[in-house]
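Write out the 3D structure for:
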Amino acid sequence: MYIAVVGPGAEATSADRQLAEQAGYLLARAGAVVLTGGLDGVMAAAAAGCARGGGVSVGLLPGDRRADGSPELTVCLPTGLGELRNGLLVRCADGLIAIGGSWGTLSEIALAMRTGKPVVALGGWRMERITPDPDRAPDLPGPISADSPDHAVALTLASITQPT
């Protein structure tokens, strides 16, 4: 299984980083490959937790220099795609755990929902559908909410029926 842990980079709070580190650890212990955007904040914390758990983490970097990647990563892949690498990250993942909130995180959540990937949110964005005519609007499911890294990992792994 390839699970993306997404969230803010430099804007991540210490709580975001703690949650991401624990999620990365638990994913590694479950045998999942941890995917991230490869930079700091939530991404680096998830990679650090993965390393502590003895797992493999892959960072899809926005730029074209491996040296810009988090040193906690097992593999750094410079894409040269900027924020467009968010789509690549989502397509490579079997599921996502979104921790905290930033515009990049929101784009990854939206791309994953559009492509049918399971998304588990741990804090961050709160989304609800607001429509002027609920009788005519399709029912669009949103991310699944979790209350802890253990819960987020369990929900994500249970949501994946057939890893690709």
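The first strand starts at residue 2 and ends at 6.
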